[in-house]
């Protein structure tokens, strides 16, 4: 978008059974350049269970394109202490700026004790966590809402769902859930879901400071996601926040 920094807050590089071929850093950079995206948060694609090599691939991508890519370490909490040690080293030594959790693909419920050590580590390292939320039994939005108040210093980013938005902005809950942020992709519910979400932002029911632009390339389509924001009734200040300023603030870029 003209006149503003565009940062995609969630993309992937690497191999996945969900992809026809390996999606490389060069593939991602090409899509970013084609669509006017300045920077992107990148992590390992699903599914695991072991993300060690995939995380190394993300590290190499970020090292090769440090001005364009920011790494989030993909954690599978089933590997317990060994995984936590790798995650801490990834932040302290490799320069990763956050964690990514995928409860559905890695088969754990976000509300169980297996997630608590990851949250504690994120709190200690002062890094955000992006949860791949949805309406599945593994990571329903209400589970995030129950957990978030216990870790008020941890910035939690979640995929957009109507229920998650409604919980986090409900007047009696909003103060306790102010550490929850929302990615724009996937805008669930077709056109009605998109309109409802954008109306909540324009009415300031959702503070635009709590929304970050995401495409989840290569699974999402950046041209479409950009056009949705471009054609919305959001004012220019809200667009600037969503398209880049919020994630810059979260990651202290």
Radius of gyration: 17 Å
Q: Which CATH class is shown?
A: Alpha Beta
Unreliable stretches (pLDDT < 50, length at least 5) are 188-192
For the secondary structure, the number of strands is 8
Annotated CATH architecture: Alpha-Beta Barrel
N-end to C-end Cα span? 20 Å
- Give the ordered list of helices and strands: EHEHEHEHHEHEHEHEHH
Main sheet strand line-up: 1-2-3-4-5-6-7-8
Strand-pairing-aware structural class: alpha/beta
What is the total number of structural domains? 1
For the record, what is the CATH homologous superfamily label?
Metal-dependent hydrolases
Tally the helices: what do you get?
10
How confident overall, as mean pLDDT? Answer: 88
In one word, what is the shape?
globular
Helix content: 40-55%
Keywords:
10 helices, eight-stranded parallel β-sheet, 253 residues, TIM Barrel, alpha/beta, 8 strands, 14% strand
Description:
The longest helix has 16 residues, at 236-251. Strands 1-2-3-4-5-6-7-8 form an eight-stranded parallel beta sheet. The protein has helices at 25-35, 52-64, 80-92, 103-106, 116-125, 141-147, 162-169, 190-202, 222-230, 236-251, and strands at 7-12, 39-43, 69-75, 98-101, 129-131, 156-159, 180-183, 211-212. Helix 6 runs parallel beside helix 7 (162-169). It is α/β, with parallel strands linked by helices and 253 residues long.
